[in-house]
């Protein structure tokens, strides 16, 4: 009984010691993080992505960079797009793309540290939107970045993340991003205003863009048509009156007797 207890205590102690040794031992590799707790680095699409690992014990020239457990030289999407600055323990992509996100690691003498690269979100909506009362309003929000999640704000609603009442949020089939299309069937004049699409992910800054929606009255399209009709009518009237007058004066002229015409001609000569 006592021996069993002693063994249990000893094994517990050894586990505790092992954990203690691991956590308190000097760190030989120290990556630079934007979010230390989540081991994340955030980057802007089409801007440089820089990862760095400080070597505390060992030699910088032995540092190995991997993406998702594959040495970076062997990753197809990275061919010819990255640089390694050995002396500073840096890995760089000068013009990073969305697909450059993911798990990277720096390794040295069997010690490995993870760095998760997150592409900050970018969202775009068409800035101006005209729609006729009673028709269907569709606002697409294009989003790029690492797993962007979208929400909408408009009118009295803020941070709408699912279909509510007349407002339907759908997934754009091509981009596969949830909530990327806002639809209102049967638009009313009260629906005019600003519609803001917000994208967020693990990066701290949200991205947003706003569409201004103008709703035209159902008969608004009729007015220009009526205007054109009125214009044509007036034009016809003017032509008609003019023609009448001309006919009249021609008639008057032919009424005058030939003698007078001769007189006129003589006067000219
Ligand atoms: C680091 O490695 C290089 C080449 O392998 C060697 O020349 C250099 O002396 C090493 N430095 C240290 C501090 O071990
Ligand atoms: C990373 O590797 C895992 C396991 O090998 C794989 O399931 C995953 O799809 C990979 N991720 C990327 C972005 O290549
Ligand atoms: C790095 O991440 C991978 C996948 O999540 C995990 O299996 C591995 O244990 C991590 N390594 C470290 C040192 O945290
Ligand atoms: C929005 O709020 C204002 C004031 O609280 C209210 O008068 C208006 O009816 C609301 N509009 C909608 C569409 O709910
Ligand atoms: C919007 O809602 C989502 C999910 O409900 C939440 O994660 C996010 O923090 C909210 N954003 C704002 C600005 O309130
Ligand atoms: C559209 O809305 C108007 C006013 O709210 C309503 O009279 C009409 O029946 C609606 N039409 C459809 C197709 O829902």
TrEMBL record:
Superkingdom, natural source: Eukaryota
Keywords tagged on the record: Immunoglobulin domain, Membrane, Signal, Transmembrane, Transmembrane helix
InterPro entries per the UniProt record, alphabetical: Ig-like_dom, Ig-like_dom_sf, Ig-like_fold, Ig_sub, Ig_sub2
Transmembrane segments: 221-242
Domain Ig-like: 31-116, 121-214
Region (Disordered): 248-269
GO biological process: axon guidance; dendrite self-avoidance; homophilic cell adhesion via plasma membrane adhesion molecules
GO CC, one annotated term: plasma membrane
Gene Ontology MF terms: cell-cell adhesion mediator activity
Statement: the UniProt record of this protein carries the keyword Membrane: yes
Classification via SUPFAM superfamilies: Immunoglobulin (SSF48726)
Signal peptide location: 1-21
Protein name: Basigin isoform X3
Organism: Drosophila albomicans
């Amino acid at each position: 009984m006592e021996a069993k207890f002693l063994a249990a205590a000893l094994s517990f102690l050894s586990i505790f010691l092992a954990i203690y040794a691991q956590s308190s031992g000097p760190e030989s590799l120290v990556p630079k993080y934007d979010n230390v707790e989540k081991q994340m680095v955030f980057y802007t699409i089409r801007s440089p992505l820089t990862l760095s690992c400080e070597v505390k014990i060992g030699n910088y020239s032995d540092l190995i960079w991997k993406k998702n457990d594959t040495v970076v030289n062997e990753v197809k999407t990275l061919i010819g797009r990255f640089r390694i600055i050995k002396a500073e323990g840096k890995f760089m992509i000068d013009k990073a793309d969305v697909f450059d996100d993911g798990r990277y690691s720096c390794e040295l003498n069997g010690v490995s540290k993870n760095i998760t690269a997150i592409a900050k979100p970018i969202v775009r909506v068409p800035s101006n939107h005209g729609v006729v009362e009673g028709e269907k309003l569709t606002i697409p929000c294009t989003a790029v970045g690492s797993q962007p999640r979208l929400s909408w704000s408009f009118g009295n609603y803020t941070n709408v993340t699912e279909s509510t009442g007349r407002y339907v949020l759908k997934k754009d089939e091509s981009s596969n991003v949830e909530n990327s299309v806002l639809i209102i069937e049967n638009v009313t004049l009260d629906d005019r205003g600003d519609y803001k699409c917000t994208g967020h992910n693990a990066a701290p800054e949200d991205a947003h863009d706003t569409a201004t929606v103008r709703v035209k009255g159902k008969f608004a399209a009729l007015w220009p048509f009526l205007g054109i009709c009125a214009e044509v009518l007036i034009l016809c009237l003017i032509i008609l009156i003019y023609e009448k007058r001309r006919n009249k004066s021609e008639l008057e002229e032919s009424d005058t007797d030939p003698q007078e015409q001769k007189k006129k001609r003589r006067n000219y000569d």
